[in-house]
Amino acid sequence: MEFLLLPGALAFFAMLPLLLLLKLTFSWWVSPVLKHLKLQRCGFGGPPPSFPLGNIPEMKKKNSVSSSLGSSKHTHDIHSSVFPYFSRWQNSHGKVFIYWLGTEPFLYIADPEFLKKMSTEVLAKKWGKPRVFRHDRDPMFGNGLVMVEGNEWVRHRHVIAPAFSPLNLKAMASMMTESTNQMIDRWIAQINSGNPEIDVEKEVVETAGEIIAKTSFGMKGKYAKEVSEKLRALQMTLFKTTRYVGVPFGKCFNVKKTQEARKLGKQIDKILLSVIESRMKSIKRETQEDLLGLLLQGNRHADGKLGKTFTTRDLLDECKTFFFAGHETTALAISWTLLLLAMHEDWQIQLREEIREVVGDPKELDINVLAGLRKMKWVMNEVLRLYPTAPNVQRQAREDIKVDNLTVPNGTNMWIDVVGMHHDPALWGKDVNEFRPERFMNDVNGGCNHKMGYLPFGFGGRMCVGRNLSFMEYKIVLTLLLSRFSFRVSPGYDHSPSIMLSLRPTHGLQLIVHPLS
Ligand code: HEM
User: Fold this and answer.
1) What global pTM score does this model have?
2) What is the 53 CA–ligand 1 centroid distance (Å)?
3) What does DSSP say about strands 401-403 and 392-396: parallel, antiparallel, or unpaired?
4) Is the beta carbon of 462 within 6 A of some atom in ligand 1?
5) Which of 119, 285, 354, 476 is deepest in the core (most CB within 10 A)?
6) Contact, 190 vs 514, CB < 8 A?
């Protein structure tokens, strides 16, 4: 019997490399070509891709050409500098077209009407997230809420959303004031030493990292700082390199960085797992009011046992997700705000007056009054319009989607260009690139002529779950900073916003900071 099988088995092993080659040729060449033909038949145009890089060479070329907007030219007209390739392709292919990251087709969307029609066709739980990004960002988000799909997403969102209710968030205010006051002390010391130029982006991002480490997993002091630094190092390792997402063997271009990210990811998981496990052991005494505490309390069966909805791995992925989705987006919103207020002293004065009227003495900050900071909310909305810190929203079709006479085929990735829509004069009018917070005075959409044209927190059922937390942090940090300091743009500041997952200032954000008497 064995002898009879042997020639067959040998033939199989001899064929193995050929089978593998056929499989790879199909997935990386035949299948993308078929997809391309299908998309063309569906009526979508776009820049012609090459194999195996897709349109990446053109994207990289344009990236290197785009440079600083010039220190004297603090223009808010940033779309063509942060996404030069999209801005160019829009001119020749309109506001909806196909481009390719490696062998993965992406539908580019900067047309709110198209987006509206598509999103009325698809339930939140039926949207996918691009598989190439899920894979690429696995060390950061794992299967946390940002990436999870289908019924699993419903389950996660159902448990997580209540943790972000305004009532629960109030308990976190003291963690925010504590870290902000420590930052203020550092600034005072630096100014007293004769150096009033502060890189507010570096400072605020660091402080927000500590805040989220406290509010997410209840870490304190030095420990919060250490974990937050490790998590940030992981993000830098993943994003500060030339990346070939969607390209076959793309990770091989960066073996060292990929290994480094994996190593850091494991270290972080180890630290967070030990925190989660020790918190689980003391579950009966669990009174901590951070997000992990709230999830643990919601994760108990009626008999008090753990694991109703989340496994330890789920909890770990969610804690990391809160960190990565929450700290930089909020910190950068605060940093861009400080720049815009430094450029528009009138608004700095108006906000300071509002703080005086609504909050009174910031040393006794009563967070119940924060809702009264109306002008500050207009400023936040306007900053997130001009500088949306989450510069795009992504989806993947899990079924064919009909939009008028076009079909978006199952599996198509979508890249919704938030920066593009927020800077589109057809949606906002001639003053689109001006800082005018008052446009939000009587209109939550800031006068945009389409309600899906303003998407700083995404859209539909998957809209940002942490936005209430970010509103609170934004108001607390700004209240404390504006009560203590005035801000001017430093001559050393080079205005060059760029994308590194979030929309950030490439060379930091240097302001001249003066203590108020
Ligand atoms: C200014 C601050 C923030 C901005 C601009 C922002 C923006 C966004 C955007 C654009 C999305 C994608 C929505 C979509 O796909 O339609 C999102 C999702 C998400 N955000 Fe935020 N975010 C901010 C703060 C936060 C904070 C503070 C947290 C948590 C601590 C957080 C946690 C999340 C999570 C977990 C999701 C995934 C929601 C889901 O898919 O169900 N975000 N955010």
Assistant:
1) 0.92
2) 30
3) unpaired
4) yes
5) 476
6) no
pLDDT digits (tens, 9 = 90+) for 63-120: 444 445 544 468 999 999 999 999 999 999 999 999 999 888 899 999 999 999 999 9
Burial of 424 (0-12, 13-18, 19+ CB in 10 A): buried
What does the longest C-alpha to C-alpha distance in the chain come to? 95
144 backbone dihedrals φ, ψ, rounded to 5°: -70, 175
Q: Whose CA is nearest to atom 1 of ligand 1?
A: 330
Atom of ligand 1 nearest to the CA of 418: 10
Only one residue has tokens 């003495």, namely 361
Contacts of 262 (CB under 8 A, 6+ apart): 139
Best of 143, 457, 462 for a ligand 1 pocket test (most atoms within 8 Å of beta carbon): 457
Measured CA to CA, the distance from residue 186 to residue 87 in angstroms comes to: 41
CB 501 within 8 A of CB 328: yes
Distance separating alpha carbons of residues 32 and 23, to the nearest angstrom: 13
The residue whose CA is least distant from atom 27 of ligand 1 is: 326
Residue 360 in tokens? 């009174």
* Å from CA of 451 to ligand 1 middle: 19
C-alpha 13 to ligand 1 mean position (Å): 49
Q: Which residues contact 26 (CB under 8 A, 6 or more apart)?
A: none
Packing angle of the helix pair 345-358, 312-343 (nearest 10 deg): 120
ipTM above 0.90, yes or no: yes
